[in-house]
């Protein structure tokens, strides 16, 4: 007599052992959370790039520094990272210029203020990237744990069977392999997104650093 088994994904998940189901649930949760941060980071980085483009265009169009500073302080919640770096540097420059006649100390203080703001901006862009990296590296192993456990249960169930057939083994192995598939489904998008976002943030960070150097040179010329 031939025993029929339903090998649909839903059936395999529902018939899996408790541990394998817990592994699948954990992987599904990690996948959902990682997709949430993938979309959040994508929108955040896209906005940061657009804000940087807009401010660079305004800055290099020859606008007055005082007007740019006033615009940055009056709409602080709508400014981008580069504009906040400019604001911090120019505020410190204006404060030190009125207090000290040491030009190098004034420029150094402005650079330190810009560097501190730069670090906060980059840290904000990099927030939760470590989570994506962890999901990408750990998920396959979590899925493998569920697969190994499911295969062990499948073969353990054959210990009381006198003649094992592929039809008896296949459902247990199939439900175990679903855990690996879910693990890869969680890991692959997280790895791709992490690599892409890390590259984009590096590019934005380079633009910030270049701006700080060029702006410091402009401030130094203004002191002469």
Key words describing this protein structure:
224 residues, 7 helices, 83% helix, rod-shaped, disordered N terminus, membrane
Instruction: State the helical fraction.
Output: over 70%
Write down the secondary-structure element order: HHHHHHH
Q: Kindly state the number of beta strands.
A: 0
Mean pLDDT: 85
Give the count of structural domains.
1
* Estimated radius of gyration: 28 Å
Uncertain runs are: 1-5
Which assembly state applies to the chains in this document? single chain
Instruction: Estimate the strand proportion.
Output: under 5%
| Alpha-carbon distance between the two ends | 97 Å
Outline, from the CA principal axes?
rod-shaped
Helix/sheet category = mainly alpha
Main beta sheet: strand number and arrangement? Answer: none
Number of helices: 7
Description:
Residues 81-209 form the MotA/TolQ/ExbB proton channel domain. The chain is mainly α and 224 residues long. The protein has one domain (17-222). It has helices at 9-15, 18-59, 65-74, 81-99, 103-126, 129-156, 166-222. Helix 6 (129-156) runs antiparallel to helix 7. The protein starts with 8 loop residues before the first helix and ends with a helix.
Concise account of the structure shown:
This protein is an all-alpha fold and 224 residues long.
Strand and helix map with partners:
Blueprint: H1 9-15, H2 18-59, H3 65-74, H4 81-99, H5 103-126, H6 129-156, H7 166-222
Helix pairs in contact: 1-7, 2-6, 2-7, 3-4, 4-5, 4-7, 5-7, 6-7
